[in-house]
Amino acid sequence: MARETWGTRIGFILAAVGSAIGLGNIWRFPFQVSQEGGAAFMVMYLAFIILIGFPAMLAEFVVGRKTELNTVGAIRDFAGGYWQYLGGLFVFIGFVILSYYSVIGGWVLRYILGSVTGGYAATESAAAYFGMVATGTDTLIAHAVFMLLVIGIVALGIQQGIELGVKVMVPAILAIFGILAVYAFTLPGAGEAYAYYLSPDIGYIMQNWQSLVPAAAGQGFFTLSLGMGVMITYASYLGDDKNLGIDGISIVVLNTSVSILTGLVVFPILFSAGVDPATSGPGAIFVSIAEAVLDLPFGRVVGLLFFLTVAIAALSSAISLIEVVVSYAIDEFGMDRVKATVIAGVAIFILGVPVTMNTVFINLYDILAAQILLVLGGVLLMVLVSWLHAGEAIEELEQGIGDLGSIGSLWIWMVRVPVILVLLVSLYLGVTGYIDFLTGAFAEYLGTL
Ligand code: PFF
Q: What is the CATH number of the domain that holds 123?
């Protein structure tokens, strides 16, 4: 049977944008901003998206489109030898990320329900409501429902499932967030929120660059879905005639717009309700938004629209995560798509079960996946493409664009030195941070004995 392809170019772009826009933009981004100095973080983040994220995305695209295979097959075909295990690492990362991503997706579904039934308004405090949602049997059920939605879409295939889904989901995200940003603009705290969010303090950047650099690099990679073969897989369903440069720019611009828009929605809501944006932890956005909207005009409708958008965004990212695993099973083992999706979905569901019992597993999985595995996968792929196969990479990028001249070597040198250096520094900080986290958690455990 012929391998599937995207029906239209816009279908591919929207699928990649749908993958990029997700919990990373809405759940992770506002709190990275507030923990890392507001607008100062924004400056660094924008610089990294352009200087690190965009060149890295092109590198993934060329490997996928050139080989037209799943990540394992793609890297084997492109590089051969032991490099194929890098594709295996990507499939593994897909499993880990989706297992906890889906649990958080389940929380979002519960918050949609809570907005409709008035659940979080009826509970004594927003934090108490989050406590009910975060763990337990209902959390397990919500995790299952979210995975079923993911399985349902992906089992339908590239054109009938993913492409059709993102053509509805991505415009919906942009439209609802646009409306909410206009609403947020009318709130009394909007002025203070914009100043906090949009006017960078250069002195702060000079003083805190050591923590800003890895935080911005990590967020940049996570939000653009880089470092685990999503963009390789999605580009493998492309024809030859596309201009990957324009596709990449469109994806980066749309994803960054949603991150900025999220800030324009979230910060005025929090400032107007007097909620501190620096509250951290995995429940932060849930607790603070639920608390804030109750005090605002049309609060429950705003809550409903907000959580609905988060759910759509999470779903359009989750389908890209599972597609990495599914395309591997189809290409390498000749498995039927429906069967591959169900098996992968059930395995990922099981891996997520511990997360539904104790939120400590979120940090355990998230730091490992986002700050170590994604960055490791990213560095290895960048070395492979830019140092070992630069000629082929440039040639592939030129397909559909034409002779790039010195722009091609500029791209390769960007990847060879600054991209790889920043990723290595982030990897080092990620590993040391994780060791600290594990020893801290272990000491806490011993303290309870
Ligand atoms: N980019 C997604 C987000 O921002 O929520 C998360 C993600 C998807 C990360 C796919 C990595 C990935 F491969």
A: 1.20.1740.10
For Cα atoms 226, 229, 231, give the angle at the middle one, nearest 5 degrees. 65
C-alpha 24 to ligand 1 mean position (Å): 6
Query: What residue's CA is closest to ligand 1, atom 12?
Result: 225
| Residue identifier of the C-alpha nearest atom 7 of ligand 1 | 225
- Which pLDDT value is given to residue 141? 98
Judged against a pLDDT cut of 90, whether residue 120 lies above it is answered with no
- Alpha carbon 374 to its chain centroid, in Å, reads 11
Q: Looking at the 3D structure of the chain, how many domains does it have?
A: 1
Q: Is 24 in the pocket of ligand 1 (CB under 6 A)?
A: yes
In a domain, 70, yes or no: yes
Q: How far is the CA of 314 from the centre of ligand 1 (A)?
A: 9
CA distance 295 to 230: 40
Residue 270: inside a domain: yes
Nearest of 173, 177, 191 to residue 268 by alpha carbon: 191
The residue segments making up the domain with residue 139 are: 9-447
Query: Ligand 1 centroid to 23 CA: how many Å?
Result: 8
Residue 189 lies in a domain: yes
pLDDT tens-digit map of 288-330: 888 888 888 888 899 999 999 999 999 999 999 999 999 999 9
Question: Is the pTM here over 0.85, yes or no?
Answer: yes
Q: Mind listing the pLDDT tens digit for each residue in 193-251? A: 888 888 887 888 888 877 777 778 778 888 999 999 999 999 999 976 679 999 999 99
Can you tell me the distance from the alpha carbon of 397 to that of 363, in angstroms, rounded to the nearest whole number? 37
